[in-house]
Amino acid sequence: MIQMSKVTKRYGSDAVLQNADFHLETGDFAVLQGRSGSGKSSLLKLLYRETEADEGDIRFRQIPISQITKHVLRREIGMVFQSFRLIEQKNVFENIALAGKAVGKPIEEIEQQAKLLLERVGLADKKDAFPNSLSGGQQQRVAIARALFNKPSLLLADEPTGNLDKDTAADILKLLEELHEEEKTTMLLVTHDELLLKQMHAKIWTIEDGRLHEQVFS
Ligand SMILES: Nc1ncnc2c1ncn2[C@@H]1O[C@H](COP(=O)(O)OP(=O)(O)OP(=O)(O)O)[C@@H](O)[C@H]1O
Protein backbone atom coordinates (compact mmCIF):
# COMPACT_ATOMS: atom_id res chain seq x y z
CA MET A 1 0.00 0.00 0.00
CA ILE A 2 2.79 2.38 0.96
CA GLN A 3 6.36 2.03 -0.16
CA MET A 4 9.30 4.15 0.75
CA SER A 5 12.61 3.56 -0.95
CA LYS A 6 15.96 5.14 -0.28
CA VAL A 7 14.38 8.08 1.50
CA THR A 8 16.54 10.74 3.10
CA LYS A 9 14.98 13.44 5.27
CA ARG A 10 17.13 16.23 6.68
CA TYR A 11 16.46 19.06 9.06
CA GLY A 12 19.27 21.49 8.28
CA SER A 13 22.35 19.33 7.94
CA ASP A 14 21.07 16.55 10.24
CA ALA A 15 19.59 13.54 8.46
CA VAL A 16 16.81 11.96 10.50
CA LEU A 17 16.25 9.32 7.80
CA GLN A 18 19.10 8.20 5.58
CA ASN A 19 18.48 5.97 2.60
CA ALA A 20 15.56 4.43 4.48
CA ASP A 21 13.25 1.74 3.09
CA PHE A 22 9.82 0.99 4.53
CA HIS A 23 6.59 -0.57 3.39
CA LEU A 24 3.08 -1.42 4.52
CA GLU A 25 0.96 -4.03 2.80
CA THR A 26 -2.80 -3.65 2.53
CA GLY A 27 -4.37 -4.96 5.75
CA ASP A 28 -1.21 -4.66 7.85
CA PHE A 29 -1.45 -3.89 11.53
CA ALA A 30 2.00 -2.48 12.20
CA VAL A 31 3.83 -0.80 15.03
CA LEU A 32 6.73 1.60 14.70
CA GLN A 33 9.13 1.81 17.61
CA GLY A 34 12.40 3.61 18.21
CA ARG A 35 14.19 5.87 20.68
CA SER A 36 12.99 9.40 21.34
CA GLY A 37 14.22 11.58 18.49
CA SER A 38 14.85 8.62 16.18
CA GLY A 39 12.42 9.99 13.58
CA LYS A 40 9.12 8.21 14.16
CA SER A 41 6.95 11.31 13.86
CA SER A 42 9.00 12.45 10.88
CA LEU A 43 8.25 9.18 9.12
CA LEU A 44 4.50 9.60 9.66
CA LYS A 45 4.69 13.22 8.48
CA LEU A 46 6.36 12.05 5.28
CA LEU A 47 3.60 9.49 4.71
CA TYR A 48 0.77 12.02 4.95
CA ARG A 49 2.79 14.81 3.34
CA GLU A 50 3.08 17.13 6.28
CA THR A 51 6.72 17.30 5.21
CA GLU A 52 8.62 16.32 2.06
CA ALA A 53 11.56 13.95 1.58
CA ASP A 54 14.88 15.40 0.43
CA GLU A 55 15.71 12.28 -1.56
CA GLY A 56 14.07 8.99 -2.45
CA ASP A 57 10.69 7.75 -3.50
CA ILE A 58 7.43 7.41 -1.53
CA ARG A 59 4.46 5.74 -3.20
CA PHE A 60 0.88 5.27 -2.11
CA ARG A 61 -0.75 2.47 -4.12
CA GLN A 62 2.11 2.70 -6.65
CA ILE A 63 1.59 6.44 -7.24
CA PRO A 64 4.34 8.85 -6.10
CA ILE A 65 2.73 10.77 -3.21
CA SER A 66 4.10 14.03 -4.57
CA GLN A 67 1.57 13.52 -7.40
CA ILE A 68 -1.38 13.02 -5.05
CA THR A 69 -3.00 16.21 -3.76
CA LYS A 70 -3.00 16.61 0.01
CA HIS A 71 -6.79 16.74 -0.09
CA VAL A 72 -7.04 13.32 -1.76
CA LEU A 73 -4.26 11.84 0.36
CA ARG A 74 -5.91 12.95 3.60
CA ARG A 75 -9.16 11.33 2.60
CA GLU A 76 -7.24 8.07 2.22
CA ILE A 77 -5.13 8.49 5.35
CA GLY A 78 -6.63 9.09 8.80
CA MET A 79 -4.50 10.48 11.62
CA VAL A 80 -4.63 10.09 15.38
CA PHE A 81 -2.28 12.04 17.67
CA GLN A 82 -1.04 11.72 21.23
CA SER A 83 -2.65 15.05 22.15
CA PHE A 84 -6.04 14.14 20.55
CA ARG A 85 -6.22 17.52 18.70
CA LEU A 86 -9.95 18.00 19.17
CA ILE A 87 -11.49 21.44 18.72
CA GLU A 88 -12.36 22.63 22.23
CA GLN A 89 -15.16 24.98 21.11
CA LYS A 90 -16.99 22.24 19.24
CA ASN A 91 -18.91 19.36 20.76
CA VAL A 92 -18.23 15.68 20.04
CA PHE A 93 -20.67 15.46 17.13
CA GLU A 94 -19.30 18.66 15.53
CA ASN A 95 -15.70 17.48 15.91
CA ILE A 96 -16.55 14.29 14.05
CA ALA A 97 -18.86 15.92 11.52
CA LEU A 98 -16.08 18.23 10.36
CA ALA A 99 -14.38 15.28 8.68
CA GLY A 100 -17.54 14.57 6.66
CA LYS A 101 -18.15 18.23 5.82
CA ALA A 102 -14.58 18.54 4.55
CA VAL A 103 -15.37 16.00 1.84
CA GLY A 104 -18.84 17.41 1.07
CA LYS A 105 -20.97 14.61 2.57
CA PRO A 106 -24.70 15.43 2.93
CA ILE A 107 -25.77 16.22 6.50
CA GLU A 108 -28.11 13.20 6.76
CA GLU A 109 -25.23 10.91 5.89
CA ILE A 110 -22.95 12.71 8.35
CA GLU A 111 -25.48 12.33 11.14
CA GLN A 112 -26.01 8.65 10.46
CA GLN A 113 -22.31 7.89 10.20
CA ALA A 114 -21.52 9.89 13.38
CA LYS A 115 -24.21 7.97 15.27
CA LEU A 116 -22.82 4.60 14.15
CA LEU A 117 -19.24 5.54 14.93
CA LEU A 118 -20.02 7.02 18.34
CA GLU A 119 -21.88 3.85 19.23
CA ARG A 120 -18.93 1.79 18.01
CA VAL A 121 -16.38 3.67 20.13
CA GLY A 122 -18.70 3.58 23.17
CA LEU A 123 -19.64 7.26 23.27
CA ALA A 124 -23.26 7.24 22.07
CA ASP A 125 -24.30 9.31 25.09
CA LYS A 126 -21.57 11.94 24.64
CA LYS A 127 -22.63 13.41 21.30
CA ASP A 128 -23.32 16.87 22.77
CA ALA A 129 -20.42 16.93 25.23
CA PHE A 130 -17.44 19.24 24.80
CA PRO A 131 -13.92 17.79 24.78
CA ASN A 132 -12.86 19.35 28.09
CA SER A 133 -15.65 17.47 29.88
CA LEU A 134 -14.32 14.11 28.65
CA SER A 135 -11.58 11.89 30.03
CA GLY A 136 -8.39 11.42 28.01
CA GLY A 137 -9.51 7.98 26.89
CA GLN A 138 -12.90 9.34 25.78
CA GLN A 139 -11.22 12.19 23.89
CA GLN A 140 -9.00 9.71 22.09
CA ARG A 141 -12.10 7.65 21.16
CA VAL A 142 -13.59 10.80 19.61
CA ALA A 143 -10.35 11.42 17.73
CA ILE A 144 -10.39 7.82 16.46
CA ALA A 145 -14.02 8.19 15.30
CA ARG A 146 -13.06 11.41 13.50
CA ALA A 147 -10.04 9.78 11.85
CA LEU A 148 -12.16 6.86 10.62
CA PHE A 149 -15.13 8.99 9.53
CA ASN A 150 -14.33 8.94 5.83
CA LYS A 151 -13.32 5.26 5.88
CA PRO A 152 -9.64 5.84 5.16
CA SER A 153 -7.67 2.92 3.80
CA LEU A 154 -4.77 3.74 6.14
CA LEU A 155 -4.77 4.98 9.73
CA LEU A 156 -1.60 6.49 11.19
CA ALA A 157 -1.48 6.93 14.95
CA ASP A 158 1.37 8.87 16.56
CA GLU A 159 1.68 7.63 20.15
CA PRO A 160 -2.11 7.39 20.53
CA THR A 161 -1.78 6.16 24.12
CA GLY A 162 1.04 8.48 25.19
CA ASN A 163 -1.21 10.66 27.37
CA LEU A 164 -3.22 7.83 28.90
CA ASP A 165 -2.88 5.64 31.97
CA LYS A 166 -1.98 1.98 31.50
CA ASP A 167 -5.50 0.52 31.54
CA THR A 168 -6.97 3.22 29.32
CA ALA A 169 -4.04 2.79 26.94
CA ALA A 170 -4.75 -0.93 26.74
CA ASP A 171 -8.44 -0.20 26.01
CA ILE A 172 -7.57 2.21 23.20
CA LEU A 173 -5.13 -0.24 21.61
CA LYS A 174 -7.75 -2.98 21.86
CA LEU A 175 -10.27 -0.70 20.15
CA LEU A 176 -7.79 0.04 17.35
CA GLU A 177 -7.03 -3.66 16.93
CA GLU A 178 -10.76 -4.47 16.75
CA LEU A 179 -11.45 -1.68 14.26
CA HIS A 180 -8.59 -2.99 12.18
CA GLU A 181 -10.25 -6.41 12.14
CA GLU A 182 -13.75 -5.07 11.42
CA GLU A 183 -12.96 -2.39 8.85
CA LYS A 184 -9.81 -3.96 7.37
CA THR A 185 -8.15 -0.57 7.74
CA THR A 186 -4.38 -0.78 7.39
CA MET A 187 -2.84 0.70 10.54
CA LEU A 188 0.54 2.00 11.60
CA LEU A 189 0.90 2.92 15.27
CA VAL A 190 3.86 4.59 16.93
CA THR A 191 4.30 3.37 20.47
CA HIS A 192 7.00 3.14 23.12
CA ASP A 193 5.13 0.67 25.24
CA GLU A 194 7.05 -2.63 25.33
CA LEU A 195 4.41 -4.42 27.34
CA LEU A 196 1.63 -3.49 24.93
CA LEU A 197 3.83 -4.37 21.98
CA LYS A 198 4.12 -7.92 23.27
CA GLN A 199 0.34 -8.26 23.62
CA MET A 200 -0.45 -7.14 20.10
CA HIS A 201 -0.38 -9.21 16.97
CA ALA A 202 1.44 -6.56 15.01
CA LYS A 203 4.24 -6.33 12.49
CA ILE A 204 6.98 -4.49 14.30
CA TRP A 205 9.17 -1.92 12.58
CA THR A 206 12.12 -0.35 14.37
CA ILE A 207 13.76 2.90 13.41
CA GLU A 208 17.41 3.26 14.31
CA ASP A 209 20.25 5.42 13.00
CA GLY A 210 18.10 6.73 10.16
CA ARG A 211 17.04 3.30 8.88
CA LEU A 212 13.99 1.11 9.31
CA HIS A 213 14.02 -2.62 10.00
CA GLU A 214 11.12 -5.02 10.12
CA GLN A 215 11.34 -7.49 12.98
CA VAL A 216 11.06 -10.97 11.64
CA PHE A 217 9.77 -13.64 14.01
CA SER A 218 11.06 -17.12 13.38
N1 LIG B 1 10.53 20.63 12.05
C1 LIG B 1 11.72 20.26 12.52
N2 LIG B 1 12.79 21.08 12.41
C2 LIG B 1 14.00 20.71 12.86
N3 LIG B 1 14.26 19.53 13.45
C3 LIG B 1 13.25 18.68 13.60
C4 LIG B 1 11.92 19.00 13.14
N4 LIG B 1 11.12 17.95 13.41
C5 LIG B 1 11.89 17.01 14.01
N5 LIG B 1 13.17 17.45 14.12
C6 LIG B 1 14.30 16.68 14.70
O1 LIG B 1 14.36 15.42 14.06
C7 LIG B 1 14.65 14.38 14.98
C8 LIG B 1 13.55 13.35 14.93
O2 LIG B 1 12.33 13.90 15.43
P1 LIG B 1 10.97 13.08 15.47
O3 LIG B 1 9.95 13.95 16.15
O4 LIG B 1 10.67 12.58 14.14
O5 LIG B 1 11.39 11.87 16.43
P2 LIG B 1 10.51 10.84 17.27
O6 LIG B 1 11.17 9.52 17.13
O7 LIG B 1 9.09 10.97 16.86
O8 LIG B 1 10.69 11.38 18.74
P3 LIG B 1 9.76 11.24 20.05
O9 LIG B 1 9.68 9.77 20.37
O10 LIG B 1 10.54 11.98 21.11
O11 LIG B 1 8.45 11.87 19.72
C9 LIG B 1 14.80 15.06 16.34
O12 LIG B 1 16.17 15.27 16.57
C10 LIG B 1 14.08 16.37 16.18
O13 LIG B 1 14.64 17.37 16.99
From TrEMBL:
GO MF, one annotated term: ATP hydrolysis activity
Presence of the UniProt keyword Glycosyltransferase in the record: no
Family: Belongs to the ABC transporter superfamily.
Cellular compartment(s): Cell membrane
Gene3D superfamilies for the chain: P-loop containing nucleotide triphosphate hydrolases (3.40.50.300)
Classification via PANTHER family: AMINO ACID IMPORT ATP-BINDING PROTEIN, GLUTAMATE_ASPARTATE IMPORT ATP-BINDING PROTEIN GLTL
Chief location of this protein within or outside the cell: membrane
SUPFAM superfamilies: P-loop containing nucleoside triphosphate hydrolases (SSF52540)
Membrane topology listed for this record: Peripheral membrane protein
Keyword Transcription (UniProt): no
InterPro entries the UniProt entry points to: AAA+_ATPase, ABC_transporter-like_ATP-bd, ABC_transporter-like_CS, MetN_ABC_transporter-like, P-loop_NTPase
Top-rank taxon, per record: Bacteria
Keywords: ATP-binding, Cell membrane, Membrane, Nucleotide-binding, Transport
Gene Ontology CC annotations of this record: plasma membrane
Full protein name: ATP-binding cassette domain-containing protein
ABC transporter domain segment(s): 2-218
